[in-house]
Every structure is written in structure tokens, then in C-alpha cells.
Write a structure and sequence with these properties.
The structure holds 2 protein chains of 2 kinds. Chain A is α/β, with parallel strands linked by helices. Chain A has 5 helices and 9 strands. Chain A has helices spanning 49-64, 92-109, 118-133, 183-189, 202-215; strands at 16-21, 26-32, 37-43, 82-86, 113-116, 144-149, 154-163, 169-179, 193-196. In chain A, the strands form 2 sheets. A 5-stranded mixed β-sheet of chain A has the order 3-2-1-4-5, sandwiched between helices. In chain A, strands 8-7-6-9 form a 4-stranded mixed β-sheet. In chain A, helix 3 (118-133) packs across helix 5 (202-215). By secondary structure, chain B is of the alpha/beta class. The mean pLDDT of chain B is 95. Helices cover 44% and strands 18% of the residues of chain B. In chain B, a hairpin with a 4-residue loop joins strand 6 (142-147) and strand 7 (152-159). The two termini of chain B are 24 Å apart. Chain B has 13 helices and 11 strands. The radius of gyration of chain B is 21 Å and the shape is globular. Chain B folds into 2 domains: 7-135 and 318-365, Nucleotidyltransferase, domain 5, CATH 3.30.420.40; 142-313, 2-Layer Sandwich (Nucleotidyltransferase, domain 5), CATH 3.30.420.40. In chain B, the strands form 2 sheets. In chain B, strands 3-2-1-4-5-11 form a 6-stranded mixed β-sheet, sandwiched between helices. Classes of the chains: A alpha/beta, B alpha/beta. Chain A binds chain B through residues 22, 48-55, 57-58, 61, 92-93, 96-109, 223-224, 226, 230-235, 238, 240-242, and chain B through 42-45, 47, 49-50, 52-53, 55-57, 59-60, 63-64, 82, 97-98, 100-114, 118, 181, 184-185, 234, 237-238, 241-242, 245, 342-346. The structure holds zinc ion. Zinc ion (ZN) is lined by residues 123, 127, 148, 150-151, 287, 320 of chain B. Chain B: Belongs to the KAE1 / TsaD family. Chain B: Its main location: cytoplasm. Chain B: Residues 28-326 form the Gcp-like domain. Chain B: This is tRNA N6-adenosine threonylcarbamoyltransferase.
Chain lengths: 243, 366
């Protein structure tokens, strides 16, 4: 770890980042340090992460060899420098598949993992999109919450306001859970705009990682963002069999 | 792949052990096991979500430890480089779904990262493959009795890579679970197996005649090789409660010894019955419960009387481990089998007849 923080020579070709996220569907992408998306492979299915992760990795890497999307250069194997892992929040079972894959892939290549809060990818995408389209122009500093399905009648949400000097979304409040029917009142009371996401872009996971690396910052947690304790029932005294 | 002794790394995450093993053909290079058993102790049994979380945290350190161990086994200067691997192998099932998925996700990514073939294999058949790593010549057919906290299965193995038949399995609790539950009834800590063993050391195994599940003549038709431990558990609980109700002290040593005897008796009787019925004079034992001293004793003594040769791999290869998964994959490779395609998932109820999962030939034929 920490390889991204080492000084680079002039011949350093720049980061090429493999992004992986399984906090909602399963997505894999390869992006350059400047944010150019070389490839993206997606399964929108909120289940089946373990089934699809291998083929998505394979196709994202194969497609990336063809250069940035739209480029007409001959395929050339990509020298990946980092793996960006979406750490959640997200339903545990699927979330773990992506994190396990990110770590194992990085280990195989001897490159570092850059952890990213999955909601950061959504926030950055929204902010960049707004900047380009002029959406929410008068409310550039508006506080908004990225909201995703957390199952069990709950939402996961993270509150953001704008981009910082490193071009990273500013987290006003860390990821949290709310019962579905209470979230609106929670957000309205604090004047927070609600922005639901039904997909996480692995490319944006990669871009968040690229910006964090450029700034020499660690912006994601080392461990999965489960937000819930495991379901366990503490055993009471043994049940009596004789009434 | 034509290598006679392929270098394979196996990943096993079907229950509460994160197992990483590396083999070179039939030679064991490393067997690293990280267990989350302690985290389950206060719950009195394996909690699937706790196990799955532990796998995610343990995987990378376990892989690194296994590579170091393999490096020193081979006399290298440092760890075995991952790039030296001929293949990656992983348990696809049966087991706890969420736990299996961690290993499947990691194995696929590792294989794609390295550009090596991937073999998805059956956990139960892996237990049988563990015997290969003992370095002795293995003979088939053999009957195999696999007993752990997660499974209790009686198998007929005609050929490790092509022909494994399920003769019977538990209809309710696994034998290991039964030990855990009885330990709780007796106020002993988790895991129950070693505790019951210890408590039973001074007990009289004939003190109380507890029932032998599915052992009546009427059970022989449909459940000759199946097991059931829930009736036994209830019988022990009832016996203990009645004692307490009468204001008498519970003779923990005798109860433990008598309970253990009932479990061991049923396991060994059915295993040897299978050997006799199929004319197979070989019995292989596997699974964590094989650590139980009384089970080994009774199995060896009664098998000797029946003229059956018993094989018991060392305990580190009996409990869930990655080396057995790697060993099975190495056998598949050596017998010319093609790697699994990448589309498989975790299958918590994978039948034992599916030795390799997502095998391209099998899929084309289907
Ligand atoms: Zn097992």
C-alpha cells in the first residue's frame, strides 16, 4: 500500500486504475488518471455478484486494451497500476464479493488497493454532471444526500456538499442507515436534497481513486462499510424439551 | 495444461475456516488456516455473517502466509511468487452461501489477474482428496465418512475425479453441531467436540443407553446410510432435565461419555455396514470431528475386526482447509480436465456427484 504516494519520475506513464464495485449491481471499469474511461462492464442485477465478477473483470480488461472508448489504436495490454474498491455501503453478501475480488486481483498483480466510499462515486458523478449541464446552477452549494437501497426496508445515505480543491466530493455526514419511511423527513428537516442512485459506476470509483491518489489522500475506509452488526441471536439457556 | 505436478493454490471458505493451501501435484507445499471459531464461541455455533466477514479480512493475509510457507518448503529465498502458479482452485459448495461467495469472488479475480486457469470444486470431494497429500498410495474404491460441524456424509468413492456417490447424510444436525448442542446442555463451552471429549474421559460410556438415530430395522430400507442426531439431542436434554427435576446432580462425565458413544456407534456402524454391503475393505475418515479421540479409537478397533483398512489423514488435513481443494484440482488437471468457465457461483447445496463445477465439456453436453 501507499505506492501511489511515492514520487514519480518524468517517465511515469500515469495511473491506470481498475475500479470494482458490487454495492448494488456488479461493475468493473478501467480508467486513466485523467478520468478517461477505457472500459466499463456492468451487470445491473442486484444479485449474482459472485457469478458475474470474473467475466466482467475479463471483459473490462480486454476492452481496456483497445484504449480509451472511441480510440482506434491497436489493442495493447494495459499495465494496471491500482485497484479501486467500492467499500460500500451496500448489502453485505454482494459487497464482499467486490472487495474480495479487488484485494485478490491487486495481490495477483502486486499493486495497491485504493478504497473508495461507493457513494462518493455517485456524488462525484452528479456534481460533474451538474457542472456540465448547469443543473442546480443556483444551488451549487446545495447539500444533497446520495441514497441507495440497503434492503430490509432501509436506505443507506451519505450527505455531500460540493467538491473540494482536490476535486473530491465533500462528505458532510458519513454513510448511515435510515428506515425507508423516515428518510424524507430526516432530510427535509436539514434542508438536504435527496438524490437516489440505483447504480454505482465503477469508472467513477476509479476517478475518485485517481483524484485521491493525485492529492496523496486516503478517502475510503480500510474495511467494508457494513453499517449493520451481523444478525445474531445470543443463545439463552438451553430450551427445555419437557414442558 | 500438461504438467504432471501442477502448482495449484486452493481457496476454501465454506464455513468458519479461511483455508489457503498450495500443492505441487500430490506434494503439500503449504496449508494455512485462519479460523473465526473464537468469534462464534459466544453464540454457541457458527454465525454465517460473522464467518463471511472474517473470511474477507483473513483472505489476503492467509494467501500471503501460504506463499511464504510454500517458498520455504521449496527452499526458495522468499515467498513463492503467485506468477509461478499453474492454476487457482476454489470451493464452490456445499457450505454457507455468503461465506463461499467471498472465496469465489477472490479466486476468480486472482485467476483473471494472473491469467491462470481456475478450477471450481466440491468441498466434500476435497475432504477425500486430502488423503492424497499424506504421501501414501491411495486405493479406490473406498468408503468415506466425513464428519464435521457442517456435514455428516457417507460416500462411496470409486474414482476421485469421476465417480463419487452419496450413500447417506444427516437428515438434521451435523454430528459436530450435536456435540455443540449437548455441550451447551451440560454447561460446557463452544466448540463442543473437544469439551465433550474431555468431560467424557472419566465417564462410563455404558452408563446411559441413549438412542441410535435411524438404526432400527425399519430404518434400514430408506435410511440405511443416513444419520439423525436430533432425537439423540432431545433424549439427552430430557434425561438431564429429569435428573434436575428430581433434585439430583447431573453426572456430566457419564452423560458426555454415553452421548459420545451413541454418536460414535452410529457413525462407525453405518460406515462399516457400507463397507460390507459394497464389498469395499477401505474406509477413509475426514472432517473436523475426526479429531474426536473416541471416534478414531472405535473406528480403528471395529474396522480391524471387520477386516477394513482405515485411513485417517493428519488433523490439519481433516478439518476444512485449502490444501485439499488444491489437491483435488491438481488431480483434475493431471487427468486432463479443462478449467471451469468463469460463470459459476456459490452453491450451498452442491451435490457430491458434481466434483468439478462449470466444467466446459459437461456444459456443452448438458
Ligand atoms: Zn468440511
Amino acid at each position: 500500500m501507499g505506492r501511489g504516494l511515492e514520487p514519480r519520475g518524468a517517465d511515469y506513464p500515469g495511473e491506470v486504475i481498475l475500479g470494482i464495485d458490487t454495492s448494488l449491481g456488479t461493475t468493473v471499469a478501467v480508467v486513466d488518471a485523467d478520468g478517461a474511461v477505457r472500459s466499463e462492464a456492468v451487470s445491473a442485477n442486484p444479485l449474482g455478484h459472485a457469478e458475474v465478477i470474473g467475466t466482467l473483470l475479463q471483459s473490462a480488461i480486454a476492452d481496456a486494451a483497445r484504449g480509451p472508448i472511441g480510440a482506434t489504436i491497436a489493442p495493447e495490454p494495459v499495465e494496471l497500476t491500482h485497484v479501486a474498491a467500492g467499500m460500500g455501503p451496500g448489502p453485505f453478501t454482494g459487497l464482499r464479493v467486490g472487495i474480495a475480488a479487488a484485494r485478490a486481483f491487486a495481490l495477483g498483480r502486486g499493486i495497491p488497493v485504493v478504497p473508495v466510499v461507493s457513494h462518493d462515486a455517485v456524488a462525484l458523478e452528479l456534481l460533474l454532471h451538474d457542472a456540465l449541464t448547469g443543473g442546480f446552477e443556483d444551488e451549487a452549494d446545495d447539500t444533497f444526500a446520495v441514497v441507495t437501497d440497503a434492503r430490509r426496508r432501509e436506505f443507506a445515505y451519505t450527505v455531500y456538499r460540493g467538491l473540494d480543491d482536490d476535486g473530491l466530493p465533500v462528505r458532510i455526514a458519513e454513510p448511515a442507515l435510515s428506515p425507508r419511511d423516515e428518510l424524507d423527513s430526516v432530510l427535509q428537516a436539514r434542508g438536504i436534497l435527496r438524490r437516489d442512485a440505483d447504480r454505482i459506476s465503477a469508472a467513477m470509483i476509479g476517478v475518485v481513486a485517481a483524484r485521491a491518489l493525485a492529492a496523496g489522500r486516503t478517502v475510503g475506509p480500510a474495511d467494508a462499510l457494513y453499517l449493520r452488526s451481523p444478525d445474531v441471536t445470543m443463545p439463552g439457556p438451553p430450551k427445555r424439551v419437557v414442558a | 495444461m500438461t504438467s504432471a505436478a501442477p502448482l495449484v493454490l486452493g481457496i476454501e471458505t465454506s464455513c468458519d475456516e479461511t483455508g489457503i493451501g498450495i500443492v505441487q501435484g500430490r506434494r503439500l507445499l503449504s496449508n494455512t488456516i485462519a479460523s473465526s471459531m473464537d468469534e462464534h464461541a459466544r453464540y454457541g455455533g457458527v454465525v454465517p455473517e460473522v464467518a463471511a466477514r472474517a473470511h474477507l479480512e483473513a483472505l489476503q493475509p492467509a494467501i500471503e502466509a501460504a506463499l511464504s510457507e510454500a517458498g520455504s518448503t521449496l527452499g526458495l529465498d522468499g515467498p513463492l511468487p503467485l506468477s509461478a502458479l499453474d492454476a487457482v482452485a476454489v470451493t464452490s459448495g456445499p457450505g454457507l452461501a455468503g461465506a463461499l461467495m467471498v472465496g469465489v469472488g477472490a479466486a476468480k479475480a486472482l485467476a483473471v489477474s494472473l491469467g491462470t486457469p481456475l478450477y471450481a470444486v466440491n468441498h466434500l470431494v476435497g475432504h477425500i482428496a486430502a488423503d492424497i497429500l499424506t504421501g501414501e498410495e491411495v486405493e479406490y474404491p473406498t468408503v468415506a465418512l466425513l464428519v464435521s460441524g457442517g456435514h455428516t456424509s457417507l460416500l462411496l468413492v470409486r474414482d476421485l475425479t469421476t465417480d463419487v456417490e452419496l450413500l447417506g447424510e444427516t437428515m438434521d444436525d451435523a454430528a459436530g453441531e450435536a456435540f455443540d448442542k449437548i455441550a451447551r446442555i451440560l454447561g460446557l463451552p463452544y466448540p463442543g467436540g473437544p469439551q465433550i471429549d474431555k468431560a467424557a474421559a472419566d465417564g462410563d460410556p455404558t452408563a446411559i443407553r441413549f438412542p441410535r438415530g435411524l438404526s432400527r430395522a425399519s430404518d434400514m430400507q430408506k435410511h440405511r446410510y443416513d444419520f439423525s442426531f436430533s432425537g439423540l439431542k432431545t433424549a439427552v436434554a430430557r434425561w438431564v432435565e429429569q435428573r434436575e427435576a428430581e433434585g439430583l446432580e447431573v453426572p456430566v462425565a457419564d452423560v458426555a461419555a454415553s452421548f459420545r458413544e451413541a454418536v460414535v456407534d452410529v457413525l462407525v456402524t453405518k460406515a462399516l455396514d457400507a463397507c460390507a454391503a459394497y464389498g469395499v475393505p477401505r474406509l477413509l475418515l475426514g472432517g473436523g470431528v475426526i479429531a474426536n479421540r473416541r471416534l478414531r479409537e472405535v473406528a480403528l478397533a471395529r474396522a480391524a475386526q471387520a477386516g477394513v483398512a482405515v485411513r485417517i489423514p493428519p488433523l490439519s488435513l481433516c478439518t476444512d482447509n485449502g490444501a485439499m481443494i488444491a489437491a483435488l484440482a491438481a488431480e483434475l488437471i493431471s487427468s486432463g480436465r479443462r478449467p471451469s468457465t468463469l460463470e459459476f457461483g456459490a452453491d450451498s447445496t452442491l451435490p457430491v456427484t458434481e466434483i468439478q463445477i462449470a466444467e466446459p465439456d459437461a456444459e456443452a453436453a448438458a
